[in-house]
């Protein structure tokens, strides 16, 4: 269990570093444009790369299934479990179905580069492949997590 805690802290740390990189690119652009009146072009590439990797990384590895916004129906516990299983199965099917197209698109985008830093755009969008693989795994693992009961004011 200590290894899982360490891995969780590492994944959260990577997310924090990506956010810091995004913010640093934004701050560099603001300062260079409005303080020195000399905008920099590289910051757009840094912001784009860090933002896409930050949110796909966080969605894939950091945010747990129970932390997402969810619709909680007032149903008996057994019905909720069945409904959750059906919803997860449909989502997993959707992720599996879109994975080949995502991989194909990312592979295609490796032929394009960003304007300033000339980073392959496929590298920027590669985070979507991680997300497309990790999200269904998170959903399936989320079925094992205990679900909270609806607030008492909604229970008959």
Explain what the structure shows.
The protein is mostly helical and 156 residues long. Helices cover 69% and strands 0% of the residues. It is built from five helices and no strands. The chain has helices at 2-34, 42-62, 77-109, 121-125, 127-142. Helix 3 (77-109) runs antiparallel to helix 5. The radius of gyration is 20 Å and the shape is elongated.
Please summarize what this structure is:
The protein has 156 residues and is mainly α. The chain contains five helices and no strands. The C terminus is likely disordered.
Please name the defining characteristics of this protein.
156 residues; mainly alpha; 5 helices; 69% helix; elongated; disordered C terminus
Helices and strands, with pairings:
Layout: H1 2-34, H2 42-62, H3 77-109, H4 121-125, H5 127-142
Could you describe the largest sheet, including whether it forms a barrel?
Answer: none
Number-wise, the strands total 0
Listing every helix as H and every strand as E from the N terminus to the C terminus, the arrangement reads: HHHHH
* pLDDT < 50 stretches: 150-156
How much of the sequence is in beta strands?
under 5%
Output the radius of gyration.
Answer: 20 Å
Mean pLDDT across the residues is 84
Count up the helices: 5
Question: First CA to last CA: what distance?
Answer: 39 Å
Oligomer: single chain
Shape: elongated
Helix amount: 55-70%
Structural class of the secondary structure composition?
mainly alpha
